[in-house]
Amino acid sequence: MDRRKVLKTLSLLPLAGAAAAIPSEANAQNKNKKGQWTPKKEVIRRSNSGGNTNPTVAAPATAGAKPAAPTPVLSGCIRSGHLLFLSGIGGWYAERRKEPGDIQVQIRSALDTMKEVLEGAGSSMANVLKVHMTVAEPNKNIAALNEAYRGYFPDPPPVRSYTGCGTDLMGRDGILLQIDCIAYVD
Amino acid sequence: MRRREILKGLSIIPLAGVATATISKEQALAGGGSAEEWLPKKELIKTPAGSCLRSGHLLFIGGIGGWYANQRAEPGDIQVQIRSVLTTMKGILEGAGSSMANVLKIQMTVAEPNKNMAKLNEAYAEFFPENPPVRSYSGSKTSQMGREGILCQVSCIAYVD
């Protein structure tokens, strides 16, 4: 069994050309610096999965309607090394709230979800490094958004960038923003 | 009184200095040691499919368009375009010693997303059968994609060992 594993590893090496093919036990003995950092890519599932509830995306095994819901199109949260990557979180999901609400309702809702996802993954809002947003009608909405946004991040707040677009270009009706982030985790 | 204060000050200074020195040493050890361990800082990797940048264990691939006239005569629909993008992405990643399975984060710009996202997702899912990367997107009009015919642009961050 062990021998087989070793052989498998050996045969994979030239193909992959990277230490990724070596199982982690082997890395412990191998003094090569490659492969020492973990996790390479870990999907954090226990938390509220943010973007996974987007109905334009196959949700993980929502009972009924569609035959055998396939694997989700995206993950809500992924850890690699000391970084956490979060999927775009929408400002409104029909299954969570009846009315879409205005930009302030939506940014609060999205940031509450972000907080939950981060804390579920052992991180926090204070650890957020970079935020990216898509905002519907930003000339009209960005000031009100900022008012609500401000309270969520302790000093210093993360860097941020955004893209604006029309209300009819947000992927589905009612949604006014989508926000994702990169954070660190210890 | 003054003398005591000065003495206090003196005794604090060397202590504080030692403390910071110790902490940074510990931090360095906890972080895996010397600075050169996270090489390369910024390396351009050229592959036949396109190029990307590596920094430490991360690979950054810039926005790949859904259509390039020198690759294909017709722009094609959103499914043709997302397949084309992800095939190029796969080529770059593999050329750089990584893979589609290593993709951590995807950012897309999609023309007319209300119309196109469902179809895009169908084709997209074929490329990430397990543990798909996180993803976010911005929508725009077809006329705002940078040039005629193009329906999506996709960039990514992946890891590489």
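qc> Chain A touches chain B through 48 residues (CB under 8 Å).
qc> done
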